[in-house]
Amino acid sequence: MKKLHQIVVVGGGAGGLELATALGRRLGRKGLARIVLVDASLTHIWKPLLHEVAAGTINSFEDELNYFAHGARHHFEFQLGRMDGLDRERKTLHLAPLTGEDGELLAEGRDLAYDTLVIAVGSTSNDFGTPGAHEHCIFLDSRAQADRFQKKLLQMYLQAHALPASSGAAPELNIAIVGAGATGVELAAELHHAAHEFAAYGLDEITPQHVNITLIEAAPRILTALPERAAEQAYRQLMKIGVTVLAGQRVTAVSAQGLRTASGLDIPASLRVWAAGIKAQDFLKDIGGLETNRINQLVVTPSLQTTRDDSVFAFGDCASCTLPGMERPLAPRAQVAHQQAVFLVKAISARLAHKPLPSFRFNDYGSLISLSSADTVGSLMGNLLGSVNIRGLVARLLYRSLYRMHQMSLHGVFRMLVLLGKDLLSRSSGPRLKLH
Asked: What is the DSSP code (8-state) at residue 292?
């Protein structure tokens, strides 16, 4: 019996999961290849939702997807594990030992063979070696980290609720967010919304007026990936809802009490979030002798193959791809990863058929930033209209549609509509804030 070509996709984020699902439908279902998805977690949640998970305005358990169940439905296999090595001569990747939540060893480290390997492990926040950042900040790179922040936030409200009524002045909650990109800005707005929801549910000892949210950005303005006009609209809205925005301030040290900037400004904060900068995961640095850049990204060609091995592809935030005519690599954005996943389905199918691989082309459709219930701003780009700034209800509907498009790529139209109906029913009948 002829051995099936084995395609291993490492990383079950938005791009990796979309790719494994599409390859399973196209190749796995027909017995043309064996598709294996590897991830260190059992479940997937769309990364742009993590700021809502952190604020508690969505329940991560309701929006997660189980890899084993999804793989069985869409004709790919799932392997639980964390990649930590690569042997290109033997065409194997190494998975680290598997441990349980209590640290108990569940499985020894093991090798997994591949004929085609796709690395899509995403990125992590880059603290640039800032003293105290790793020890005293929460990062929002994973669902576990977002859940951790939500629990800390809830605990602070519960502690204040348990104080005697005669304990004195109303307690304050100081939150500092380092980095005013999409994650930082959206988290700041979502936390402002959550403060009002806490008060509505009776946890009003910390009033919304006593929740001090400070957003710190080293660049001269927030949302540098957006046009200046759209960023200015977001800035004005943040100021309107009471978020303190400090642009042009580089954080130089973090402690359990707060942050210090290069200008000597001290910012008190009992909750500290680092959302500035990105880098690929440290284990990728020169892995298997592949070419990487200074932030550990794998350098790839326009076909998304690594520069030193045609059998290894990489895409999304962990890959550095400079297209012809471009001076800089593509930015680490969700729409880049989505378009690359769609491209790779065609490219890998062509590779299996021994046909020349096409070159990836990126179409920029703009960016949208959600300011929770307050507003949504952004820019749309297209051949007919050029670049157009939008905000308000239309922008918010478009922003919400991005998640539904992700669900549609994973489940199809009918199941996406079922999930939409379920979400509408649960949010109209259940609590608007996760309180446990």
From this structure: B
